[in-house]
Amino acid sequence: MNHMKYNNLSKEEKHLRKKIAGKMREMVKEQLTVTVEDMTSLATEYRGFFLQISFSEVHPLMMICLVKTIKLTAERYLMVNQLNLNSALGSHAVNDELCCYSYRATQWLDVVVSPDRFYEILDRCVDEAIRGYRILSKELTNI
C-alpha cells in the first residue's frame, strides 16, 4: 500500500493547501467577530457557545470546536459514549477539570467554501452541539 506523506507532496500541492487554509481563515474572519486569534486558531462566541476554529495547512483541514460549561456527574460520562455512537459529524466530550462540554468536528478543505456553505457547516455543528448539551444537561429550554 502506497501512503502519501506530506513531505512527498509537490511544492505546488503544498502551496495550494496553504492557500486554501489561508483563504478560509480570512473568510471566517470576515464573517465572524473574532475576539482572540493566534497562528492556527480563531475564537469567538457563537449561538451561546465558545467557538474555536483552527486550520491546518498540511491537510488542509478546518476544525470547529464548540464549548459550554456544564455540571458533571458520573452518569454523563457514560452518556457521552452513547452520543458519539450516534454522531456522524463529530465528537462529544466532557472535561471534569474545566466542567465543560465540547463538540468537535473536522472539515476537509479541498476548495475554499463560500460564506453560505461555511455557515451551513458551522450551524450543523452547533445544532449537534446543542443536541448533545441538552441530553447531557437535561435542559428543556432553548439554548
What would your notes on this structure say?
With 143 residues, the chain is of the alpha+beta class. The chain has a single domain (7-137), classed as 2-Layer Sandwich (Yope Regulator, Chain: A). Helix content is 39%, strand content 28%. It has helices spanning 11-31, 74-85, 115-137; strands at residues 36-37, 41-46, 49-56, 61-69, 90-95, 100-108. It has a 6-stranded antiparallel sheet. Strand 3 (49-56) and strand 4 form a beta hairpin. The longest helix is centred in the last third of the chain and has 23 residues, at 115-137. The model is unreliable at 139-143 (pLDDT under 50).
Characteristic key phrases:
single chain, 143 residues, alpha+beta, Yope Regulator, Chain: A, six-stranded antiparallel beta sheet
Architecture per CATH nomenclature, i.e. the level-2 architecture: 2-Layer Sandwich
The level 1 CATH classification is Alpha Beta
Q: Judging from the principal axes of the Cα atoms, what is the shape?
A: elongated
Largest sheet: 6 strands, antiparallel
Give me the side-by-side strand order of the main sheet: 1-2-3-4-6-5
**Number of DSSP helices?**
3
CA(first)-CA(last) distance: 48 Å
Approximate strand percentage:
25-35%
CATH topology assignment: Yope Regulator, Chain: A
Q: What's the pLDDT, averaged over the residues?
A: 86
Structural category is: alpha+beta
Number of domains: 1
Helical content (DSSP H or I, runs of 4+):
25-40%
Order of helices and strands: HEEEEHEEH
